[in-house]
Amino acid sequence: MPSTAGGLAGLLLILAPGIWYELIRQRSRPGRGDSAFVEVSRILLAGVLVSLTALILLGGFRALDPRLLADPQALLSQPGYLAAHLGLVAWTVAWFLVLTMTIPAVWLYNTPGKNAHAEIRQESQWVSYFDRIPRRDAADQGLPPPEFTYLQVRTASGVLYRGRLAGYDNGLDLDARELTLGRPHLITKPVGEPWESLEPDGWSVVIIRGNEIKDIHVLNVVPDDGPAPARRRRVPRIPAHSRLVILLALELLALGQLAALGR
Questions:
Q1: Are 21 and 108 in contact (CB under 8 A)?
Q2: Of the candidates 165, 170, 176, which has an alpha carbon nearest to the alpha carbon of residue 216?
Q3: Which end of the chain is more exposed for a tag (fewer CB within 10 A), N or C?
Q4: For residue 221, what are the contacts with CB-CB under 8 A and spacing of at least 6?
Q5: Residues 6+ apart with CB under 8 A from 53
Q6: Sign of torsion, CA 192 195 201 204?
């Protein structure tokens, strides 16, 4: 472990892009059950490689205009350089962080192994399809968010339940998760039997353990308050990997322009 403030800052600047790389990798690559040693090694290696790439790029722009960025040699050898050029050092660190946050994203989203049509979420799919995705889709279509959600749940024993979504756990552990169906239209269908309502008997909710559920059908109901609002015209989206390449190109172009203006 570094014993000085400068050494600690340097270590954090190396670790930050490695951690950012790992977070993006987990969202775009399926997990492999790696050991803690492998994950830490990957973070350190990615941090070093990304930091070196950013430093090489910054060094190239500084060669065009030495006043654009802080002098790394003077920063390490002259004790008073940091205090005398605090703004310039902060400016340099900011650009370093910008590049080290962009480079891993560009790399991961433009290399094989990324599924361009899906995203790996580090959360229960219940959270995604009961909340996040319906709200996002409604916003894309210019509609209000869903008023409520109806579910049809089939258990491992074959019993079907239908009802309004009343609550659910958001944990990843299926054994500890529970799903709650409530009124109105709380009905059930035992194996080989017709549908029957649970409401006349006074039942308010049905709580089903996650490990008992075989499949779930989801119906999101949008509020009907008169005529639907005008649909927002959908603008074609630039793919994420292309947006990241454009972002990195703009960052490098901005640095190049600043270096050209300073000459």
A1: yes
A2: 165
A3: N
A4: 146, 147, 148, 149, 150
A5: 99, 103
A6: positive
Kindly report whether the global pTM for this prediction surpasses the value 0.70: no
Residue 126's Cβ-count burial label (10 Å; 0-12, 13-18, 19+) is buried
For the chain, what's the residue count?
Answer: 263
C-alpha span between 207 and 197 (Å, rounded): 16
In DSSP notation, 161-227 reads EEEEEEEE---S-GGG-EEEEEEEEEEEE-TTS--EESTTTT--EEEEEGGGEEEEEEEEE----SS
Rounded to an integer, the average pLDDT of 119-141 is 76
Q: Using alpha carbons, list the distances in angstroms from residue 165 to 150, 151, 195.
A: 6, 6, 18
Report cis status (omega within 30 of 0) of the bond before 236: no
Percent pLDDT > 90 in the chain is 2
Rg (CA), the chain: 27
Instruction: Quote the Cα angle for 150-154-157, to 5°.
Output: 155
Which residue type occupies 235?
Answer: V
> What are the tokens at 106?
């560009």
What is the structure's pLDDT at 241?
A: 64
pLDDT of residue 239: 62
228 has a pLDDT exceeding 50: no
Sign of the dihedral defined by the CA atoms of residues 132, 138, 144, 149, in that order: negative
Average pLDDT over residues 219-229: 64
Residue 25's Cβ-count burial label (10 Å; 0-12, 13-18, 19+) is: buried
